[in-house]
Fold this sequence. Notes:
Layout: E1 7-10, H1 20-30, E2 34-40, H2 52-64, E3 68-74, H3 82-88, E4 92-96, H4 103-112, E5 116-121, E6 139-143, H5 157-169, E7 174-178, H6 186-192, E8 196-199, H7 201-204, H8 209-220
The structure holds 5-O-phosphono-D-xylulose and cobalt (II) ion.
EC number: 5.1.3.1
Cofactor: Co(2+); a divalent metal cation; Fe(2+); Zn(2+)
GO cellular component, one term: cytoplasm
Amino acid sequence: MxxxxxxxxxxxxxxxxxxxxxxxxxxLDAGARTIHFDVMDGHFVPPITVGPEVAKAIAPRIHxxxxxxxxxxxxxRPERHVDAFAEAGADRILxxxxxxxxxxxAIRQIRDxxxxxxxxxxxxxPVDAVAELVDxxxxxxxxxxxxxxxxxxxxxxxxxxxxxxxxxxxxRAEIEVDGGVDAGTAGPCAEAxxxxxxxxxxxxxxxxxxxxxxxxxxxxxxG
Length: 223
Ligand SMILES: O=C(CO)[C@@H](O)[C@H](O)COP(=O)(O)O
Ligand SMILES: [Co+2]
């Protein structure tokens, strides 16, 4: 496995898109080493968000800070989009196991671009769905809300699920959590085995996003 930054990964889904560069710089200056970028196509999930051109626009400032761009593809048939995001500067590309019959192929595409692959499972997807993929990815992301929107409450059943996922994954891949992560939920996720903590609204909707970043980092054990 390549070296992967652990800790809190701010999700720009909840940032002010009119000031996107400034908002990314704010969390990079606070110490974020992973910036999470949610891509939604209006099919796999109802909303439509951003694409490779926006990734390309923010990637240079992320890389200049020594951080990585973590692209979460909530799109049908992600294998059609891997090339564009790799060329746009994505460092890690996460594909949903539910989004394609060819998830192993998509992971191979990501690796062939020299990027880091990850696989994502939705709340309704059992951890066994990644059993044949753990050895070909760097990260397994466990959705702790249903995908598609920021600001949803953390699904408490995720803690027991993370325990089952950690038992399956062991030290073969990092475990990332995404959805409803805040200073209250990050600690239990860390105890259950998570090492990467995506947080959107808890950071960018906070009165003081930098303080929120530090609080969640401390709660996760990366303060
Ligand atoms: O992938 C997603 C949503 O589908 C996330 O990355 C959200 O951005 C998380 O937002 P919060 O739950 O932290 O507000
Ligand atoms: Co996400």
